[in-house]
From TrEMBL, chains A, B:
Protein name in UniProt: 2-hydroxyacid dehydrogenase
GO molecular function: catalytic activity; FAD binding
Similarity field: Belongs to the FAD-binding oxidoreductase/transferase type 4 family.
SUPFAM superfamilies noted in UniProt: FAD-binding/transporter-associated domain-like (SSF56176), FAD-linked oxidases, C-terminal domain (SSF55103)
Highest taxon, organism lineage: Bacteria
An annotated GO BP: respiratory electron transport chain
Lineage per the UniProt record: Bacteria, Pseudomonadati, Pseudomonadota, Betaproteobacteria, Burkholderiales
Classification via PROSITE patterns: FAD_PCMH
Length: 478, 478
């Protein structure tokens, strides 16, 4: 590596460093990397590199820095907001995909920790932990294909945040390649470490703009062996919230899931995903999946479900309820919930939003956002599905493909309706992105909803860690 | 504020901004602020300011910045490593004590959150949360006098980390005054918010070097109403670790405390603190306090304790055990544990250390550190007390006052013995500061144990956020 490297000579230099098999340059080879899985975002890349080691990642960073070519780090490409693919305009970056870095480097059941490389699939991590009697709790629809590195860079949420926190709360340490190619080894597996600025939190949720996460030390938990699930139809979101509070008071951290869904969302799943059935006999306006988990005492879980739901039925807070009787029924209930993304992709054009508000404000949010959307398009279908215990509601205005195609300016309509929803969240001290991240969809929203002081502080951090705008330039902080 | 402000005119300008009552300049008034509670660290201050509002904090920062005088933010002054008082040399800073900012701004039981100002006493926060049926879990010996701001700036640990994490994990948002006087309002109470770099984690644990925390949004939990405690004598630390694992498997997050103590430490407490008694009839080499907590099912907790400890006694892992029969007995057990700092201060000169290692390495750490210390001073008394479930062991070589005074160079002896202990921790991938922070004691250790890449990254962040070295210059990152 003696000669100066330029944009023109970068590909051969990358091939020298990684081997030709690890550098994909031809259009047919890289289309799966430059386009998002829903086909909504598409960009150009100079090439795709697939390093196998941290040293190779460092080599790529140094070469790209020397050539002045930006890098877009990429995991399983399952982003819901265009975060994992290049922008439609601007200089084509090198896509650095971590798929080949998939070693599990260490598992320590007694310490409750494991060290994995960024390219490990989330499901593999879950299964490896379970294999030693421990739980890695992060769980979400894309877990069969998303990579740990992507879940870290987006601070992924999912269905277990209520009990175990976001991805951020389940990380003990990181290994990161910095903008000058330096490898920061912060792979500690300690529960406590107060020695200086906590650097790992800079990179978690930074969407690849500050460094490239190559490995992580993850926190494992005691593995719950008992699960009790119920599906019930609350009278309305306010009733659901009241019942959430009762479960929290009654059984504390045994409450591991509390997912709400409206009738339209359930109908989309039933109509578009094979082998899904309505858990209740009749149609209801609102549905909740509640899960209790424990390391022992299955009878106690059942008793809490039976008593809490029974009382709520007597008081008219719930219209109907069913408790899953066995593992198959429990799996079926979760399948209904996890089929939402697939159903909504097939069914129509859904304007996905990802707001969170204080838990106490969820009913008001749903109500006000519905009114705001219907003021623009009266009677429009709205799918609502959310992690109610976290205050995180995906409020999704839905157009049939035909209605969408018939709009004179569908792009503007999308912007207007999303703004209706996000404005309501902002008014309730909420956020426009609870768990999906900023990606491309959220970039203009950062400008709209973030304070000047906050944007300025983020820009200061970005300029300090990535002074030459090498990592994902233009992303995250507008 | 039209005239240029200088070091000479700063005090009157501060008096103009805050009122004369809020600026203490005379030596007798400020001695409680310039000396630490154990009398080990003492420095000079230009004055002490006691602002009542965030705006006033911002005013102080602007004035000090203009005068080129550094600021030392201070809470309850309970640091165990000189972190809250000025250095013995260097320019005298303005001490900015947050004691008068003690409003509880908001409590939302349904959302599980509260917003408090930095000067609130930890115990007040705990009690306010309990008043609405919620738990703020951070708990430590100094909770009656330490301020929330100090616990945030040091990412305080304590006895409930095993179940609820460090202070960091219990924060939802912050309000911070930055180096140019800007107020960053990040007081969100959301469980999920993925909109950009997570700035709050920069300031948590930064020991006042990056900004001044003026208020925080804290995370509250369901309030456990049932507590079962036992005190037992494990055969050795390895047996204690084995029993820890059994409790984790048996009852998951019900395990809320697992504190180990050696015989010497218990003897110090019994000899030096009135009304403390040995929970067991006989003397034993090792002692463990285990606590299970739950929102329900007290009988279940008792059953787990009885069964797990009973089996361990049969297997010879435990020599004796007692289960607390009522609230008084439970309080007595915790009093023994919480009396350690008081006892050690009275008893002798204790060379406090604060290592954490992977939980699986705790027995090896205790063994190797003991050998290392005894290689320097054969037979030296060692008090050991630790949060075993976090891998955090306070390993404390003890000298009688007479023996300490008789040493030709006690300062060097202290450095040598602490280095013995910290080196063992480092060899086991541990840390020299699990929960106390860096303060003044740890500053040379940062240089010794941190990688160049990590120190460089911390310096980059410091230079970006505090370019003129206004906040606690020279602290945290050497």
């Amino acid at each position: 590596m003696n000669d100066a490297v330029t944009r023109e000579t970068l590909i051969p230099r990358l091939q020298d460093a990684l081997g030709a098999h690890a550098v994909l340059g031809d259009a047919p080879d890289i289309v799966g990397y430059t386009e998002d899985w829903r086909g909504r975002y598409r960009g150009e890349a100079l090439c795709v590199v697939l390093p196998s080691t941290t040293i190779q990642v460092s080599d790529v960073v140094r070469l790209c820095a020397a050539a002045g070519v930006p890098i877009l780090p990429q995991g399983g490409n399952t982003s819901l907001c265009g975060g994992a693919v290049p922008p439609a305009d601007g200089p084509a970056p090198v896509i650095l995909n971590l798929a080949r870095m998939r070693q599990v480097r260490q598992v320590d059941a007694a310490n409750g920790s494991m060290i994995v490389e960024a390219g490990c699939i989330l499901k593999t991590v879950q299964e490896t932990a379970a294999g030693v009697g421990r739980l890695y709790p992060v769980s979400l629809g894309a877990e069969g294909s998303c990579q740990i590195g992507g879940t870290l860079s987006t601070n992924a949420g999912g269905t277990s945040v209520l009990r175990y926190g976001n991805t951020r709360e389940n990380v003990l340490g990181l290994e990161v390649v910095l903008a000058d190619g330096t490898i920061w080894d912060g792979l500690r597996v300690l529960r406590k470490d107060n020695t200086g600025i906590d650097l790992k939190h800079l990179f978690i949720g930074a969407e690849g703009t500050l460094g490239i996460i190559t490995a992580a030390a993850l926190k494992l938990h005691p593995l719950p062996t008992q699960h009790s699930l119920a599906w019930f139809a609350p009278r309305d979101p306010a009733a659901a919230q009241q019942i959430l509070g009762r479960f929290q008071n009654a059984c504390g951290s045994r409450l591991s899931g509390f997912e709400i869904m409206n009738r339209h969302q359930l109908d989309r799943v039933l109509a578009n995903v094979p082998n899904r059935r309505n858990p209740l006999a009749d149609a209801h306006a609102w549905h909740v999946l509640v899960e209790l988990s424990d390391t022992r005492d299955a009878d106690g879980l059942e008793a809490v479900l039976t008593q809490t739901l029974g009382e709520a039925i007597e008081q008219g807070l719930i219209e109907d309820a069913v408790i899953a009787a066995n593992d198959t029924q429990r799996a079926d209930l979760w399948e209904v919930r996890h089929s939402v993304s697939e159903a909504n992709k097939k069914a129509a054009v859904g304007l996905t939003t990802d707001c969170a508000v204080p838990v106490s404000s969820v009913p008001e949010f749903i109500d006000a956002a519905t009114r705001a959307v219907h003021a623009v398009v009266p009677g429009l279908d709205i799918a609502i599905v959310g992690h109610m215990g976290d205050g995180n509601v995906h409020f999704i205005p839905m157009f049939s493909f035909a209605a969408w195609a018939a709009l004179p300016d569908s792009g503007s309509m999308g912007d207007i309706l999303r703004a209706c929803v996000n404005d309501v969240a902002a008014r309730l001290s909420g956020t426009f992105s609870a768990e999906h991240g900023v990606g491309q969809t959220g970039l203009p929203l950062m400008q709209r909803y973030k304070s000047r002081a906050e944007l300025a502080l983020m820009r200061t951090v970005k300029a300090a860690l990535d002074p030459n705008q090498l990592f994902n330039p233009g992303r995250l902080v507008p």
